[in-house]
Write a structure and sequence with these properties.
Elements lengths: L7 E6 L5 E6 L3 E6 L5 E6 L4 E6 L5 E6 L3 E6 L5 E6 L6 E6 L5 E6 L4 E5 L5 E5 L12 E3 L5 E6 L2 E6 L5 E6 L6 E6 L5 E6 L4 E5 L2
Antiparallel strand pairs: 1-2, 2-3, 3-4, 5-6, 6-7, 7-8, 9-10, 10-11, 11-12, 13-14, 14-15, 15-16, 17-18, 18-19
């Protein structure tokens, strides 16, 4: 499928598997029909797009961009619903919805994780990373029941209580490699992490 004119940084399938969304350096988001392989919608952003995510119900798309914003779009039309600001000169590298669509988690260049109300755009929590590290968070995710958030902070993974914002646990650390992606197993009992030294690590989650 061709159409983008820059690096494609992020992809996400719709929950029903019929649509793919892509975000690119060319400042566009594109939705693709996976039966015909044709482009359904072209959404013009204000700046380069680093992250995209479908909501679990397939109705919304969130995008994180170079201009420090999260933008929420209607998936079936590409219509802009709202823009969330508050990252403060920090590129948004990662976004994810919680299972009931009510919250969005984001990671940015400040080494902090931020939780937002999907419908109002209000900030709910700022989860502070290691203060001695100034670095980007390129991966965030909720566990399947929405109670835990995992985020990559340099060579560490932090687990957070998604309801209270409390830091629960730090996994890893001491490596000379950066966490690039994290994913929970469907039952939430295992976390996989990919690093920039070409390795994958698996963690059991109590």
């Amino acid at each position: 499928m061709r159409g983008h004119e820059g690096i494609i940084y992020s992809l996400a399938f719709s929950p029903d598997g019929r649509t793919l969304v892509s975000g690119s350096w060319d400042k566009t988001i594109r939705l693709w029909d996976l039966n015909s392989m044709n482009e359904l919608h072209l959404i013009q952003g204000d700046d380069s797009i680093y992250s995209v995510a479908f909501s679990p119900d397939g109705q919304l798309i969130a995008s994180g961009s170079f201009n420090e914003t999260i933008t929420i779009w209607k998936a079936n039309t590409g219509t802009l619903l709202r823009t969330i600001q508050g990252h403060g000169m920090r590129t948004v590298y990662a976004v994810a919805f919680n299972p009931d669509n009510r919250r969005i988690v984001s990671g940015d260049l400040s080494n902090n994780v931020r939780i937002w109300d999907t419908h109002t755009g209000d900030s709910i929590f700022v989860l502070k990373g290691r203060p001695e590290i100034f670095g980007r968070i390129v991966t965030v995710t909720y566990n399947p029941n929405g109670h835990i958030i995992a985020s990559g902070h340099g060579d560490e993974i932090k687990l957070w209580d998604a309801i209270t914002g409390e830091e629960l646990q730090t996994l890893g650390g001491g490596e000379e490699s950066e966490v690039r992606t994290v994913a929970f197993s469907p039952d939430g009992r295992m976390l996989a992490a990919g690093y920039d030294d070409n390795t994958i690590k698996l963690w059991k989650i109590p």
